[in-house]
Amino acid sequence: MPTQRHPALLAFALCLITFAVNLQAPLYTTYAELSGYGAGATAMAFSGYVLGVIPVLLLLGGLADRVGRRPLILVALALSMLATLLMLLAPGLETLGLARLLLGIGTALASATGTAYMSELMHAGDNRHAATWVTASTSLGFGLGAALTSLFLLSGPSLTPGSFYLHLALACLAMLAVWQLPDRRLDNPAALLRLPYYPAGSLPYGLAILLAWACVGLVIALLPSILKQHGLANWSGFSTFCVISCGLLFQPLAKRLAPVRATAIGLVILPCSYALLAWGADGGALAAVLLGTIAASSACYGFVYLGGLSAVNSLAGEEKTRASAGFFLLAYMGFSLPVILTGLLVDRLGPGTALLVFGLVLLAGCLLVGLALARSHKALAEPMLTAVK
Q: How far apart (Å, rounded) are the C-alpha atoms in residues 360 and 344?
């Protein structure tokens, strides 16, 4: 039987899974220099993450129904530990690509089942609160790993900072915690291979998170090399923390808003905040970078993330696992492809031009998705109004 502490134990595990994902972010420029590559190659290694995410989200949507939720969380934790060990044993850009592949697989397993599992562990299966717990724990983890690595690096350069060992120790505790959680399998499980599901009206929410996480990916993968030109490389972990985890501060407000309104607010904030952080990065203004990343985080991990995930789960009915997989599939596509293209532009045209091009595309995307969101919401509302009449 689920108890009040079970959601907290799952949240702890989800936090540790995502903790490992950006643990190495402040060292990306160092890895690239060791391996003799530039921003484009760094972005490609960073995007190895998505090569692990996409097959799981595309092909294994029914896995949790067959083997249960708990084994997938345990596997995700084990993969996060293996990735950290690889970076301790063989630091470099090539190893980073492999580690991020493993992290992608683990995070996809956790993402595809985390909200559904959290809902099962909560009394009355509260979908809205489940989404809040999942977004809060994963947002904290994604940013905290990078921030702690930067904190250790401020005391001196190192390829094996103490944050790596801290993750391994805490992940072991998380595995013990997850082992205590109840689990269940469906009596009549669905097919193992199930494509992601996009309920009617959900696609604009997926495209919104694609744009939001493209901005996050740029901050994590490319900002360290840009900041290094101004002697600010050791602060890149704090910018990663700000662009992800500070979104937690805005989730209580997002939770009080209707999902469509929360997402729309995020789409307004996103290009404005990006303009501030990009100007700060190009000019070496650390305060502008940090303020811009905090503002961007309010959209990326506050309004758009929570509003979008809540909307998708509400629209999905009994297909929450597949719908979550579809939502995160678009999110991780944004996390990779735009970042690779921008990294190649940095190598060819310089950081200033690359940041400008990304910003213009981001602005156009936010305008188009905002219009699509308004049309979709209106179309869904019309049948309800007709029924009332």
A: 17
